[in-house]
Amino acid sequence: MAENKNLVNHPDHYKKFSFEAIEVIDEVVPAFGPKLSFSIGNALKYILRAPFKGTTRQDLEKAAWYLEHAIELLDMKQ
Question: In this record, what's one Pfam family (predicted)?
């Protein structure tokens, strides 16, 4: 059970820096407003974990997808 909890609470692939991904996300995404925050937060999550989870290309592709989605939402707003 402890191993499963570790995968949920502070998994290692989010703790490779002097900060956790969630700390960056919590600090950055409010500046984008509610419409873009979800996509920006997910893009940041995938970028920050990409080199550590063993799925670098896939994580960067996911980040790119979320950034493209944010751009589409931004374009719809105008």
Answer: DUF3310
